Amino acid sequence: MKNTNRLLLPFYSITVDKATIGIHAVDKDGKTIIYNQKMKEIEGLSLEDIKDRSILELFKLDQEESTLLKVLQQGIELLNVKQTYWNRNGIEITTINDTYPIYDKDELVGAVELARDVTVLEKIQQSYRKNSFPATFNQIIAESPSMKTVISTAKKATNAKLPVLLIGETGTGKDLIAESIHNELFPTTGLFYTLHCHNSDSLLIQRLVEDLENNQLYTIFCERIDLLSIPLQQKLLKELIKLSEGNRQFIASIGDDPVELIASGTLLKDLYYFFSSFTIRIPPLRKRREDILPFTTSYLALRNERFGSVMEGLSTEVEDLFQQYEWPGNLRELELLLDETTSLTTTENVITFDMLPLHFRMKSSNIGNKPNVITDFIVHAEKELLPLDRFLHETEVYYLEKAMKIHDNNITKTASALGMSRQSLQYRLRKLKK
Ligand SMILES: Nc1ncnc2c1ncn2[C@@H]1O[C@H](COP(=O)(O)OP(=O)(O)OP(=O)(O)O)[C@@H](O)[C@H]1O
């Protein structure tokens, strides 16, 4: 039996590494034992990031609720759990996860998560949902001066019919603006074709050419060209040059500063030049906080109309929290949060702090004087609770490391933020490293 297992090892190894689903397996202490290539891609982590670190450290106090952790704690499988989150590279990812406990005889020895990456499908679905209401500039919430400038520049680009490059973090509204440009073109270009560049599928460009073969008029929106591999960007540029002979509108989006992307070898300079006649930078939500509440009001009104719900607004406490939170996922994160919060309500018409999902309360718990809800998150376990001293040790290591990172490893500032003396912090750091 042992021999057969050994013979099968290279087969397992290749299968796991080449699988197109993400695989993450941990032992009973939460230490990573398998983390395949696809999982790295999905989560934007490298093996170095996760080696020898337990999921308690990696996820617990910082990201979403970890399904792996839940399965480890409860010992039962969790199937078809859909999660949308922003990975370590700030990319929005949607996965559907199946997570299984692993038993050796009756003893729980670990857990494994199988994650299907449905980001592109989710994007396509979002476009379909949006297509029932053609996007126009009128729908775009733009209270802030910076967003007003974005809209007026986008209108100029629409009139000029020149290629447009939209620059902005994930969820800032690049797709919405691209669609608005398309819908306001006159004379109109019939089809709005989105090339989702979120994967490095070598057939992507070939499919674009086939899809557009019989169409004369269209707008091509190449969404997040910076996520394509350089050879695919070269291929894309070649095709775009051929296609640019007709009366077509070209729009692309990128997630970061083009100069930096070019310098880091992530964006092909010539592809950038192709689109850069009109360059529009969409600021992140945290830099235009005037848009947060008007967007919330408008989004809630839209939901009320669609779903017959009665949510009117936010309590003052939640308003303040929204104004202070960083919104790394920008408007999309706000939308998802409002969806998640309101989908659980019945007769309430104001969103209060307690109604916000736990992961958001966790993430925002360092803002102002919000009660720290870490304990809510941790004490889920029905079985396999960690011994208290080990749990406290792991939590302390995590918390101190995080605090040090926030303060650029400055002991004095970290100690002051934690309400302790420098000496005491140094002592604890030394002790924890042992
Ligand atoms: N100013 C705005 N007014 C109204 N809705 C907005 C605004 N900005 C974004 N949205 C909405 O927020 C969601 C995210 O926007 P969108 O998909 O356009 O972002 P994005 O920058 O293209 O993100 P990604 O780079 O991840 O594709 C969409 O549902 C969009 O309609």
From TrEMBL:
It holds the Pfam family Sigma54_activ_2. The keyword Transcription applies. It comes from Sporosarcina siberiensis. PROSITE patterns: PAS, SIGMA54_INTERACT_1, SIGMA54_INTERACT_4. InterPro entries: AAA_lid_NorR, Homeodomain-like_sf, HTH_Fis, P-loop_NTPase, PAS, PAS-like_dom_sf, Sigma_54_int, Sigma_54_int_dom_ATP-bd_1. Residues 16-77 form the PAS domain. It comes from the Bacteria. Keywords: ATP-binding, Nucleotide-binding, Transcription, Transcription regulation. The keyword Transcription regulation applies. This is Sigma 54-interacting transcriptional regulator. Residues 140-343 form the Sigma-54 factor interaction domain. CDD domains: AAA (cd00009), PAS (cd00130).
